[in-house]
Amino acid sequence: YYIKNVECFITICYNIFKYDMRRNYFMLKKETIGLLDKNNVDFRDIFSICAGKSFLYQIRFREYVGKCNQWHTELNEGILKLDDRIFNVEYIGTTSTTDNFWFSSEIESMIPDEYVNLMINTKKIMQSLNLPKVTENKIELSNEINGDTLSMIYSTFAPENVTYFCGLGATSIYMFVKKLPENMFRKMNSAEFSNRVMEIISAFNVKHKLMVKALLIENEIEYSNDQNNIVAKFNDNSILTVEFDNNDFIRKISGKLSL
User: Fold this and answer.
1) Residue 190, SS3 per DSSP
2) What percent of the chain clears pLDDT 90, i.e. is strictly above it?
3) Cα separation of 44 and 65, whole Å?
4) For the chain, what percent of residues have pLDDT higher than 70?
5) What is the mean pLDDT of the chain?
6) Average pLDDT in the 93-100 region?
7) How confident is the model at residue 259 (pLDDT cuts 50, 70, 90)?
8) Pairing assessment for the beta strands 171-178 and 85-96 based on DSSP bridges
9) Are the CB atoms for 30 and 125 separated by under 8 Å?
10) CA distance linking residue 22 with residue 12, whole number of Å
11) CB-based contacts of 18, cutoff 8 Å, min separation 6
């Protein structure tokens, strides 16, 4: 997929969604978007710049919820129930065991319009980036493109702090989880960075160096890089070196971790 007029998009987008220092908006920073090669962008590129931040917040949400035995969502109320806990949600989309497609929430007749507004606004942002295959209402799934990877992208481009939850079933429904504690969106420390990065490259098909750079930028961590290393300064007592091979795959992460 191709990005056209990226510079124009970034200017327009950030005039509309100005960064408020009191909130770290979940939407990607212009520096992160600038990592993309505007002449040659595919799904893996888009997912790579989103995976780190989305996965970081997803893990924090799981830790915040703790062990959960049952889930239930009230479509007409925009509510997710995890055992006895209640969360405000809007809906992203659905997948089904009977076909091989993603269906965006705004075309699902069972979901009220008021609970798809965030998805509509998120897709408008992405459409401005000229990403038609990622913003279509119906998307064919593959080993790389599935409900989780799509939801990770959408939740990262959303213009407010969210994570996502997947309610699994014959029809699985993906939701933006909203109005979470601000602490869930805090700046990461070096221990989190190291753990999340290794988990991501084990679980997902990402471009390692692109994912690492995006994650550092999104958390406002200073870094320097050469051909085979990224050196990230989390604080004066914690500087990590991420070493890559000649194909930009991570070889190791070294340095002093901090919490």
Assistant:
1) helix
2) 82
3) 30
4) 90
5) 90
6) 95
7) confident
8) antiparallel
9) no
10) 21
11) none
Q: Which residues contact 186 (CB under 8 A, 6 or more apart)?
A: 24
Is pLDDT of 4 > 50?
Answer: no
193-230 pLDDT, tens digit per residue, is: 999 999 999 999 999 999 999 999 999 999 999 889 99
Which two structure tokens, joined as six digits, stand for 89?
């949600």
Q: Which DSSP state fits 238?
A: E
For residue 206, give the amino acid letter. V
Q: Which two tokens stand for residue 20?
A: 């408020």
Closest CA to 203 of 70, 6, 71, 59: 59
CA 34 to chain centre: 16
- Which residue(s) pair with 230 in the sheet? 225, 242
Q: Is 179 left (phi over 0), alpha (psi -120 to 50) or beta?
A: left
* Tokens found for residue 235: 């604080």
How far is CA 221 from each of CA 31, 134, 189, 217, 218, rounded to the nearest angstrom?
12, 29, 9, 6, 8
Alpha-carbon 64 to chain mean position: 18
Which is nearest to 145 in space by CA: 101, 111, 184? Answer: 101
H helices of 129-253, where?
132-135, 147-157, 190-203, 208-218
**Cα 83 to Cα 71, 73, 90, 163, distances in angstroms:** 6, 11, 19, 18
